[in-house]
Amino acid sequence: MVTHNWFYDGMLYIYALSLLFYFSDFVDRNRQAKRMGTGLLIFVWVLQTGFIVHRIISHLDMTLMTLFEYLLVFSWLLSTVSLVISRFFRIEFIVFFVNVIGFAVLTVNLFVFGSGASLEIWQLARELLVLHVILMICAYVAFTISVIFSGMYMFLHGRLKGKQWSKSMQRLPSLDVINRFMLGTTLVGTPLLMLSLAVAVTSILTEGRYGLLLDLKVIISVIALGLYIGIILKYRWFNGTGWKFAKWNLLCFTLMLVNLLINKVSSFHGWS
């Protein structure tokens, strides 16, 4: 757990999982993912409601409400409004964007203003970095699998275009299947990278070491995230081809490898 408040931690993790499903629907119109995201969001709303009721009961004098309570209610209202919009108005994408803000508020509220957890600032920042590393490792796994599919796609596409048949081609799936898995694994890795960066930035802000925001690893990670989001949106919304997606996917992964190899010249992972 990130903090000693397991209830709040669990609420954040479920909220993050809900956003992952909404992100999948956002870029690929996946209705099953949207239903999963909505179900998890409703569960988060129930947890938020229970947490707020508990805070009210334990702090009956509401004139003593802190900024933590105000932001907690603000995040709860965002969740409530997004669920109402999703149920009665069905405006595409608004639920995703509203809850990105709601999740950010809920996270910053915990790590900056505190939820009653007894962690020291340095210890909290250190545990945030552990969570950042775990998320980043998962993102690297997804991107590695994705780039393997990209290599397979480029190999098979080149052979088919040049009419160079071989027995090895018979053991490969079709371009359509490869393309689907290549895109799917990228869709998994991108939000994981996004959450990892969000946690890393939160840890920097928690400690007040703002200079690390200009660290080379942070800058390259942000650029890589922007490129991944860019190639996904270009493919899904602007009729991009699988060949171009595979080529840009290789470039993005190369940038991620460079980011991994510059640990020795970066002070980010050793700052705490």
TrEMBL record:
List the Pfam families hit by this protein, alphabetically: Cytochrom_C_asm (PF01578)
The residue ranges of the Cytochrome c assembly protein domain are 65-262
Does RNA-binding count among this protein's keywords?
A: no
Domain of life of the organism in this record? Bacteria
Q: Which residues cross the membrane?
A: 6-24, 36-57, 63-86, 93-117, 129-156, 177-204, 210-233, 245-262
The keyword Transmembrane helix appears for this protein: yes
Q: Kindly state which keywords UniProt assigns to this record, in alphabetical order.
A: Membrane, Transmembrane, Transmembrane helix
Q: Which InterPro entries match?
A: Cyt_c_assembly, YpjD/HemX
The protein depicted here goes by the name Cytochrome c biogenesis protein CcsA
